[in-house]
Please model this.
Amino acid sequence: MEDTTTVTMVEEPEALFSGLTFVIIPTAISTEEQQQLTQDIVENGGTLHPFDDGNGRIRDLRTITHIISTTSDFPDYQSALELFKHVIKPSWVQACASTKKIRNPRTYSPDPALFMTDVVICCGSSIPQGDREAIQGGVLAMGGQFTAALTKTTTHLIALDLEDDRCGLALNKRLRIIMLLPHWFDDCLRLGRRISERPYILPDPEILNAEAGAIPSIKAIPHVRDAADPEPADPRPPRPAEHSESTRHIQAFKGKKIMLGEDLSLSRHLKDAITETIEARGGRMTNTVEEADMYVCNYREGVEYTKASQADKDVGNLSWLYHMITHGAWTSPLRRLLHYPRPRGGIPGFEKHKISISSYTGDARVYLENLIIACGAHFTKTFRQDNTHLITAHKQSEKCEAAEEWAVHIVNHLWLEESYARCREQSLTNRKYVYFPPRTNLGEILGQTEIDRAAVASHFFAKTTKQSRTKSDQDKDTHSTPAASKVARTKSAPAVSTPAVSRHANPDGKENETPGSTGSRSAKDKALSKLHDAASDIAKFEKEMKRKGGVVHGGCRAKDLDVPDNSKKSRDRDSVASKRSFEEVEDAGNAKEESQDSVIEIKKVKRSKKDAPAPVKFRMLISGDKRWVNNGDKESKDKSKLRELGLFVVDDPKKVDILCAPKIVRTQKFVSALASAPTVVSSSYLDYALQHSKLPPPHEHILRDSDFEDKYGFRLDEALERAEQNKKRLLKDWNIFCTQHVVGGFDTFKEIIQSNGGVCHRWEGRTTTINAAKRTIKNADAEVSQNQEEDEGDVLYLISGSTKPDMKLWPKFRELAKKHDMVPRIVSTEWILFVAMAQYVHWDPVWEMQ
Model:
């Protein structure tokens, strides 16, 4: 009988790493770990390709699919990226093997641009859904991982306080996890670096403590070790470290040929010493670029430098060479800024800058000094008023206070490093260069910026064939990857833009800032309110003038806020160009941290440090806007948010950069502020800033009110031009009288007159010793135009109402004018309002009281 049995063939599942070829870079990977990696790869069907220890390179790179390394600092890293090879940390293999699933290689990349690698974030239940999505998008874009549920692999739990359910769960399970405020994530994204979690950790985060004391100093910064000076202080080759023969490093010189450039100007004795040292380490010297594996020189110039660079050889300076001799391990000269040859003449534009530094010590200070000089700027150990920039690790220093007074740019070191790395001066409109997270010493992230090879190539040795992978085009404004810059805030691809506003609390009492809230992040208000409660001094600056009849002519209560902007009006105002006469200012408060020749001498300080105003970028006055009426909590939060954006809402109309109102209003502060020639914007400017957590261009929100202009006979834009000419001196040398009970109040018109340089006297009908002398008529070509062409010179003005008490005072006023041989003119308030708003002296008989 025929056998008709059918045999069904069952295919075995394909091995996890089937078809994948690996190579292990031995740097910082122990022998035991390498053995475990080999076992995991082989057991899961992968192929392990041996690493060539002889020359420290990967054989047959094109056949490799995955490169396992703890760092991007190995010779074939750039070539691997160009060939689209996956470079992963050892933890990727372990994660794949444990879950039996191929994980995303991006989240295990050693690329320093992906600064959130090794971070697994989970959000607490108190974080709104929209913010969770944005945080998820941000952490994934920066190389980290996000988990919806709290697991043992979670490293960071984002919450507002320990009352969050997930915080309680983590504590009960005794999970080794960092529980912290969302502000940490915000600040990391803003800087493009991973900063310390310390100031943000729950339950008592330092950023909410207004009395936290001085910001801790940074004792050691590994990224600038042996890389603080492009020219070693000791010209002799260093002695190799005892551990330099470790097999966990790529040998620096074994099988390599090294060429020394002529611009090093080395003596024969020193060349011989270097040759002996390198040959003892397995290397050889050569005199031709074509044979060399490494080319050592001082500057980015010359035929040999160009040839070596275009041939993708290692090109570095003597400091780089000595670093490899010391440690016996290869390192890329692009990894540390001062290991790569300098541009002769520096970075274009830096020759105009005079730069000082604050709050950096030891190697960090030396590193920044040398980097400033390498950029081509003038470094000053003493901070003076003619400095253009102050580089600081935080803003708790007297240098920063003086810089605010003198309108000197206060920047963090990222501006200097990235300008040097990208071969061009970076714009300070990028806020990350002027941002200082609360309670954070930015010295902890010093030296992490690498040379942008694409930028150097385009400026110094542009290739005609093979092009290198460019980071500068992908990453111009943030230290991130292309994916990070393209993340949009949608449900499918959450944006990185959730954290838009910093949360500041200055513990020394100089500046108290409450945190702002971003868009829908209502949950954050909980944490922000705590900071607000601690920031008692903010009330000094936000106290509003309250008075009856706050509007001069019948409107609502005047609430004037001062929000400034980068308009042409904010250049060298009296408020910025301080009258403090410092001959020298150094950071006395950081004397222990800085070198001895950096001691500060403060002379003729007109106000104490305790009374110094909080440093601000811009000042804004708001008038006629009713958004905060009967809502003090919202007012406080909105003002704090604006303050964190660089806008300080003030009450003083004499120090205004931007004037904001829903329409042209005739309030005391609006009228007084016009003398400062501010940029006048509509309330839509505030709406945009509060909604988007960033400052819009002022010219897009210019206030237009043609009805008002037609009614009162002047154009606001022309008035502001005249105010610019007048320089607050429209009524200089004028003595103007005003009755006590005039509509709007004497104090209102006194403020308006004084804002324009005049003097206002209360007229009560009694004998006065006031000098009412005639005014000198100014020439048209005077140094400061006061727009007084219509001034008659001999007219004495009394601003009065039409009530009987006021009218009884008129005869005595006429006697006063006659006594001083002047013409008495008793006028309504319309006269002074027109003059102050139109910004020129004008007379119309309709204003005279009969």
In short: Residues 54 and 254 are 7 Å apart (CA to CA). The longest helix spans residues 362-375. The chain has six domains: 21-108, 120-191, 231-339, 350-455, 539-702, 723-847.
